[in-house]
Design a protein that fits this description.
- The protein has 492 residues and is an alpha+beta fold.
- It has two domains: 69 residues; 301 residues, no CATH class.
- Helix content is 34%, strand content 17%.
- It is built from twelve helices and 15 strands.
- It has a six-stranded antiparallel sheet with strand order 3-4-8-7-6-5.
- A hairpin with a 6-residue loop joins strand 11 and strand 12.
- The two termini are 83 Å apart.
Amino acid sequence: MRGARLRPGPSGRPARGARARPHHPHLPLHRRGPAARCRRRPRPRRRGRRRPGRPRRAVPGARRGVHRAARPRGRSGGGQLGDLARLPADRRARPHHHDRDGAPVNPRRGLALGLIAVGVLGIVLTLATTGSVRGYVKDHYTRAGSQGGAEVYRSSQSPAKVAADIQREHEPADRRVTPEGIFLRYRGDYVGVQPDGRGSRITLADENRGYGLFYPYVGGYWGTYSGPAESFRGGGPGGRRQVRARLVVVLAALLASAVLATPASAGPLLSDGDAAELAQSLAEATAEQDVCYGWRVDVSDSSGGPSGIDVGSGAGPGIGVTDAENAGCTRVVELFGSVRFTCESCEADDSSNATVVSTLPNGPRIGDLEALGLDGGDLKGDDGDVVLANMVGALPIVAASKGAAPELEADALTGPTGAAARDRATGSPRVPDWLRESWLALAVCLLAILGGVWWFVSVVLSDRSAAGRAARLAARRRRRAAETDPPAPKGT
């Protein structure tokens, strides 16, 4: 076979039956013949390799064992190969990647400055985009005139929808909700949203004029009150606001008979005056809408406070919508709530919740009250009585806004007369509206600025300490080099 070799026998000749294996220089050794395995190819000599006995070439002016930074410079210092070329003027003016101290610029400084810039920009944008409730009302509703020094606007939307939109854009410091309207309090501004036919009437006034115009609804809640039946709110835990009881105007005989038949007593949340006032407003709404409204709240206080069931309706305090006095009611809307106060040594926290039960096809729901800023979880707070009165008072106006009941007619805003004309608003909000609305965004931006400043200062201090250590190490090396190196030859 061409290109193949036979396996040799004992005498050096090919053995019988030996199979010829091809021999090829590119095959691996285990596939080649025995002779090919024993051969060793000579290694090629590497280029540039110094031959034995040939001296190494030395660079002129360079001394062995000395760093080039410590070698003498200049023509008189050992005959260097050449001097460094002088840079052009335009290249010499460029900033170097080292600072004045000779230490490299830390990129973390730029990141810290960027974080500070982001925080400052966030604060500027937040303050620039945060407006006032007065500007929002002027931009979104139609001007319809003025009344008593206040600006009047109109909208084709329902009062509940208008009030929800205003509160979503500008959170009020306080609110008062009655069947006759929704009143919002800001720092220096009062906004009243009342039904006006198929739309809404928005009244915008400052604090002094607004308290006088809205006095029949907010008198005693947001200021002093000189009317009859003055008392202090406090049926529930922690209530401290002045309230009043409106005189019976509609269904006076029915309410008086109900009160005489069932003597009203202070409930766990509402006092006598509060319950009578709320029942009167519900009675007026029932007369206009033919819908029975009421409330029933179960209060349990394990710390020794008042407990029981706070119940009432348009028929009077202590009378539920399902009692015999309301046997003729087929259209019913009732607020159910539960409040649990725990002891101070208990591990569990106070809790409260509320829901709305209605027999109307498209009646009010708890979500409609939450859109107005009324949450059942606030019943356990210090102003739980105010929250309960607002939630119950919102039922008629929400039912009318959803089309489940006829529209209500709001009374004209005339203001107080006589001794009540001397009453003034008190307890003005101390926190500005822009800070109350945007405090979270401002807090995040402020934290970003403080974090960036702290980061920048820490990086600068770290760089200075590192530069100091590097300078001390370089000085130590120069001293050692000066002590060990021989003196440089003097030039001629």
